[in-house]
Amino acid sequence: MRGFRNLVSLTYAQKLSLVAALPLVVAVAAIALLVTYESRATAEREIQALERRLIEAKKEELRNYVTQARNGFAYIYGRAAPNDEIAQNLVKQILSAMIYGKDGFFFVYDYEGNNLVSPRQTEFINRNWEGLTDSDGTPVVNEFIRLARQGAGWHSFMWQKPSTGEEAQMIAYVVGLQDWRWVVGTGVFIDDIVATVANARAEVEARVQRTFMYIGGIVLAAVLIVFTSGMLLNIRERRLADAKLKELTQRVFDAQEEERGRVARELHDGISQILVGVRYALDNTRRRLSRGDDDGARDPLDKGIEHLGTAITEVRRISRDLRPGVLDDLGLGPALKALTDDFRERTGIETEFTTVVFRNRLDQDSKIALYRIAQEALTNIERHSGATRVTIDLRGHKKGATMRITDNGRGLRTGPNRSGSGIGLRNMQERIEQLDGSLRILSSRGAQSGTVIEASLPLSHLLPPQEDATPKRKAGS
What we know:
alpha+beta
């Protein structure tokens, strides 16, 4: 559990490096295991093929030796009787003289297991070896007799080398002289073949280990490269993120100050002046009442009441701009309708709002975002476009919801002079991207000038029909 908590508490850079390096290590490990398995399997097949070829060569050599020996005494055996002891002794002398190499010799046993010829190991002669086995328990003499009765055959077993006295593996080839009931054969030791095969396997194992070391070095280098790249990328991204965060923070502060300045200007230029007029009217009324001029006090009192109503209207307008209550109470459609009506009355620009009712199904964040985008767009149209007609269309569809704002103004400026409206467009873009939506802006200049702003939200921001997307407001709130 502690290891899991340590894994979870890794830094972002460490997690990024781990995610990047782990698949690489797993893939290379799988490749290394596959290469090792295939290399060993291929090498083992080649070694086994080499061993078979060498053994077949030894067997062929043994066959030739026995064939030559039999040709050497064939003229004697062919004319002798089954019990011709003179002929048998001549053949024994001939086979006893046939020695080759350091350990090569011919041996003869009869079918009862008695040794008749063993020139390099004379202690075997004239003794019965029926039931003799090697150190591994493999029958030796009995197998010679069985093969001889069948005519001929090969047999492999462990035997003591005459030259060194050490035990080694031997392959023997025997033939049967059926008239004399003899087993005649010779054998060769294949310890050289065993050593060759062992050396080949050791070489293969060394080659596999070298391959593992090479792959391990490559993996280590790759992991280091991934780790270094991840660290450099993380440092770079962190610096960019810090810069963007500072920029965003500054923009938030600027937006707050701009909004405060706008509210302060409206309070000073609008409500403050109106309230000054109300105070003047009330003072005028009080002076006239103090002089007993009741009829003269009525006119300034009416003007004060009128100015006070205007101030109340201005307060409501400013409050609606900051946070429209109709957006929370009735939804986005009525809020946009009130916004366009106010825009038309204030600017004199012909403004039309259309919508397809989809039962207030947008979530709260989406309603606020679309309302602010419409508010920003209308502000830009009033300040920069010179348009005479604006249309706003809001509708829901199978893919989500779309709001389209169109004007017939001059279109967007290009180049360094468009910074004034660029901040507003960037605010729109950021608002819609926060909700995984998209913002398209189409603009043209000339005879067919105008701008189209289309904000689209995905279906995930539409609530089910039975869910109330707008929280109920308390009375007086």
